[in-house]
Amino acid sequence: MSNLTHQDAEGRVRMVDVGDKTVTRRTATASARIEMSPEAFIAVRDGQGPKGNACRTAELAGIMGAKKTSDLIPLCHPLPITKAEVTIEPVAGETAFAITATVRTDGKTGVEMEALTACSVAALTLYDMAKALDKGMRITTIQLEQKQGGKSGDWQREGTT
Q1: What CATH number is attached to the domain comprising 113?
Q2: pLDDT tens-digit series, residues 60-69
Q3: Which one of 26, 61, 73, 154 has the fewest CB atoms closer than 10 angstroms to its CB?
Q4: Is the pLDDT assigned to residue 70 strictly greater than 90?
Q5: Residues 95-120: pLDDT tens digits?
Q6: Domain that holds residue 95
Protein backbone atom coordinates (compact mmCIF):
# COMPACT_ATOMS: atom_id res chain seq x y z
CA MET A 1 0.00 0.00 0.00
CA SER A 2 2.95 2.36 0.39
CA ASN A 3 2.96 3.03 -3.40
CA LEU A 4 -0.46 4.66 -3.21
CA THR A 5 -0.04 8.39 -2.73
CA HIS A 6 -3.35 8.88 -0.93
CA GLN A 7 -2.67 6.25 1.76
CA ASP A 8 -0.01 6.00 4.42
CA ALA A 9 1.85 2.77 5.30
CA GLU A 10 -1.06 1.65 7.51
CA GLY A 11 -3.67 2.31 4.80
CA ARG A 12 -5.01 5.53 6.32
CA VAL A 13 -6.41 7.96 3.78
CA ARG A 14 -4.69 11.31 3.39
CA MET A 15 -4.65 14.27 1.08
CA VAL A 16 -1.31 14.50 -0.70
CA ASP A 17 0.86 17.43 0.41
CA VAL A 18 1.56 19.53 -2.70
CA GLY A 19 2.99 22.45 -0.71
CA ASP A 20 6.55 22.05 -1.98
CA LYS A 21 5.59 21.54 -5.62
CA THR A 22 6.23 24.22 -8.22
CA VAL A 23 3.37 26.18 -9.69
CA THR A 24 3.11 25.34 -13.39
CA ARG A 25 0.48 25.61 -16.12
CA ARG A 26 -1.55 22.41 -16.21
CA THR A 27 -4.23 21.47 -18.72
CA ALA A 28 -6.41 18.38 -19.06
CA THR A 29 -8.97 17.31 -21.63
CA ALA A 30 -11.53 14.58 -21.02
CA SER A 31 -14.41 13.18 -23.01
CA ALA A 32 -17.69 11.35 -22.54
CA ARG A 33 -20.46 10.08 -24.73
CA ILE A 34 -24.22 9.77 -24.33
CA GLU A 35 -26.36 7.59 -26.60
CA MET A 36 -30.12 7.98 -26.95
CA SER A 37 -33.15 7.11 -29.02
CA PRO A 38 -33.61 8.81 -32.40
CA GLU A 39 -36.57 10.82 -31.03
CA ALA A 40 -34.60 12.13 -28.06
CA PHE A 41 -31.52 12.78 -30.20
CA ILE A 42 -33.43 14.93 -32.70
CA ALA A 43 -35.12 16.93 -29.93
CA VAL A 44 -31.84 17.52 -28.08
CA ARG A 45 -29.90 18.28 -31.28
CA ASP A 46 -32.52 20.83 -32.32
CA GLY A 47 -32.72 22.45 -28.87
CA GLN A 48 -36.35 21.39 -28.50
CA GLY A 49 -36.23 19.06 -25.50
CA PRO A 50 -38.95 19.12 -22.85
CA LYS A 51 -36.79 21.29 -20.56
CA GLY A 52 -35.33 23.58 -23.24
CA ASN A 53 -31.91 23.60 -24.86
CA ALA A 54 -30.30 20.60 -23.20
CA CYS A 55 -26.84 20.96 -24.79
CA ARG A 56 -26.30 24.56 -23.73
CA THR A 57 -27.58 23.83 -20.22
CA ALA A 58 -25.35 20.74 -19.95
CA GLU A 59 -22.28 22.69 -21.13
CA LEU A 60 -22.84 25.23 -18.36
CA ALA A 61 -23.45 22.45 -15.82
CA GLY A 62 -20.15 20.84 -16.85
CA ILE A 63 -18.28 24.07 -16.20
CA MET A 64 -19.95 24.35 -12.81
CA GLY A 65 -19.01 20.73 -12.09
CA ALA A 66 -15.35 21.41 -12.85
CA LYS A 67 -15.41 24.25 -10.33
CA LYS A 68 -16.94 21.99 -7.64
CA THR A 69 -14.70 18.94 -8.10
CA SER A 70 -12.95 19.25 -4.75
CA ASP A 71 -16.38 19.33 -3.05
CA LEU A 72 -17.36 16.07 -4.77
CA ILE A 73 -14.15 13.99 -4.84
CA PRO A 74 -12.85 13.65 -1.28
CA LEU A 75 -9.08 13.91 -1.82
CA CYS A 76 -8.98 16.48 -4.64
CA HIS A 77 -7.37 19.80 -3.84
CA PRO A 78 -9.41 22.96 -4.47
CA LEU A 79 -7.78 24.61 -7.49
CA PRO A 80 -7.84 28.08 -9.00
CA ILE A 81 -9.24 27.12 -12.40
CA THR A 82 -8.22 29.58 -15.09
CA LYS A 83 -10.18 27.94 -17.94
CA ALA A 84 -13.09 25.52 -18.14
CA GLU A 85 -14.64 24.81 -21.52
CA VAL A 86 -17.26 22.14 -22.27
CA THR A 87 -18.58 21.36 -25.73
CA ILE A 88 -21.31 18.95 -26.75
CA GLU A 89 -21.57 17.91 -30.39
CA PRO A 90 -23.65 15.31 -32.25
CA VAL A 91 -21.71 12.23 -33.35
CA ALA A 92 -21.97 11.91 -37.14
CA GLY A 93 -24.15 9.03 -38.26
CA GLU A 94 -25.23 8.09 -34.73
CA THR A 95 -27.87 9.09 -32.21
CA ALA A 96 -25.23 10.13 -29.70
CA PHE A 97 -23.44 13.22 -28.45
CA ALA A 98 -19.73 13.63 -27.77
CA ILE A 99 -18.86 15.71 -24.72
CA THR A 100 -15.43 17.29 -24.39
CA ALA A 101 -14.09 19.29 -21.45
CA THR A 102 -10.81 21.18 -21.22
CA VAL A 103 -9.71 22.62 -17.89
CA ARG A 104 -6.61 24.68 -17.09
CA THR A 105 -4.93 25.98 -13.96
CA ASP A 106 -1.68 27.55 -12.92
CA GLY A 107 -1.14 25.46 -9.83
CA LYS A 108 0.70 22.75 -7.93
CA THR A 109 -1.45 19.82 -9.02
CA GLY A 110 -3.25 18.79 -12.18
CA VAL A 111 -6.81 19.24 -13.40
CA GLU A 112 -7.53 15.76 -14.72
CA MET A 113 -10.29 15.18 -12.16
CA GLU A 114 -11.84 18.56 -12.97
CA ALA A 115 -12.03 17.70 -16.69
CA LEU A 116 -13.47 14.25 -15.94
CA THR A 117 -16.00 15.74 -13.52
CA ALA A 118 -17.03 18.35 -16.09
CA CYS A 119 -17.78 15.60 -18.63
CA SER A 120 -19.65 13.51 -16.07
CA VAL A 121 -21.84 16.39 -14.89
CA ALA A 122 -22.54 17.49 -18.48
CA ALA A 123 -23.61 13.95 -19.41
CA LEU A 124 -25.82 13.63 -16.34
CA THR A 125 -27.42 16.98 -17.12
CA LEU A 126 -28.15 15.89 -20.69
CA TYR A 127 -29.77 12.78 -19.26
CA ASP A 128 -31.88 14.84 -16.87
CA MET A 129 -32.92 17.26 -19.60
CA ALA A 130 -34.07 14.47 -21.97
CA LYS A 131 -35.21 11.67 -19.65
CA ALA A 132 -38.87 12.41 -20.41
CA LEU A 133 -38.13 11.32 -23.99
CA ASP A 134 -35.81 8.38 -23.28
CA LYS A 135 -35.10 6.81 -19.91
CA GLY A 136 -32.84 4.24 -21.61
CA MET A 137 -30.07 6.69 -22.55
CA ARG A 138 -26.54 5.39 -21.96
CA ILE A 139 -23.65 7.45 -20.65
CA THR A 140 -20.44 5.76 -21.78
CA THR A 141 -16.72 6.15 -22.20
CA ILE A 142 -15.86 8.85 -19.69
CA GLN A 143 -12.09 9.12 -20.05
CA LEU A 144 -9.05 11.35 -19.91
CA GLU A 145 -7.82 12.24 -23.40
CA GLN A 146 -4.70 14.23 -22.55
CA LYS A 147 -2.91 16.19 -19.87
CA GLN A 148 -0.13 18.72 -20.06
CA GLY A 149 2.24 20.03 -17.43
CA GLY A 150 3.32 18.98 -14.00
CA LYS A 151 6.08 16.72 -12.74
CA SER A 152 4.92 13.69 -14.72
CA GLY A 153 4.87 15.70 -17.95
CA ASP A 154 2.52 15.42 -20.88
CA TRP A 155 0.32 12.42 -21.63
CA GLN A 156 -2.04 11.65 -24.49
CA ARG A 157 -4.37 8.71 -25.04
CA GLU A 158 -3.18 6.50 -27.87
CA GLY A 159 -5.14 6.93 -31.07
CA THR A 160 -6.04 10.59 -30.44
CA THR A 161 -4.57 13.56 -32.24
Answers
A1: 3.30.70.640
A2: 999 999 999 9
A3: 154
A4: yes
A5: 999 999 999 999 999 999 999 999 99
A6: 24-150
Count of domains observed in the chain: 1
Quick one: how far is CA 118 from the chain centroid? Answer: 3
d(CA 23, CA 82): 13
Residue 160 maps to a domain: no
19 within some domain? no
Q: Specify the higher pLDDT residue, 161 or 29.
A: 29
Is 157 inside any structural domain?
no
> Residue 150: what pLDDT?
87
Exposed/middle/buried for residue 145 (C-beta within 10 Å: 0-12, 13-18, 19+): middle
Domain assignment of residue 7, yes or no = no
The active-site residue, picked from 8, 20, 71, 128, is: 128
Rg (CA), the chain: 17
